[in-house]
Description:
The protein is an alpha/beta fold. It has helices at 19-24, 47-59, 71-78, 95-104, 118-128, 144-164, and strands at 9-11, 29-32, 62-66, 84-86, 111-115, 131-135. It has a 6-stranded parallel β-sheet with strand order 1-6-5-2-3-4, sandwiched between helices. The model has no long low-confidence stretch (mean pLDDT 92).
Amino acid sequence: MFETFFPDEYVASTYVIPFEKLYEEGYRGLIFDIDNTLVPHGAPADGRAKKLFARLAELGFECCLLSNNQEPRVKMFNEEIQVHYIYDAHKPSTKNYEKAMEIMGTDKGTTIFIGDQLFTDVWGAKRTGIRNILVKPIHPKEEIQIVFKRKLEKIVLYFYKKQRNK
């Protein structure tokens, strides 16, 4: 039952993902959530995010931000990193995951999604058929609807970890 929501991978942070290895494996497109995946909720791109996107461009990755936030938030974050973006994405709907791949010129086999929420980010990526990496949220301060979802996520992640340890 819970397997529907299990991430393909679960790591401590976006900033520990071995992007060089992923490139070697043939991945060319990276779709990112923003809040609590790259920076704390509502924050602009910080030095770490800027450095990451410069490194990804140097490696040859196409990147796209996929956010349920409205355009002013996404545009403000993107000012410093200058990648493709889609705002008001309605995740977990698959439509904009597919649009992101179209924009980047990638497909399901060459794209990875990175995000911090199971029921929007990961589930949308899984429904689209693309590899996904769940990261631990950067900061505990979140909107109330996300706080409720986090409680449910803990249950799913309990079973995910239990299955991984078999």
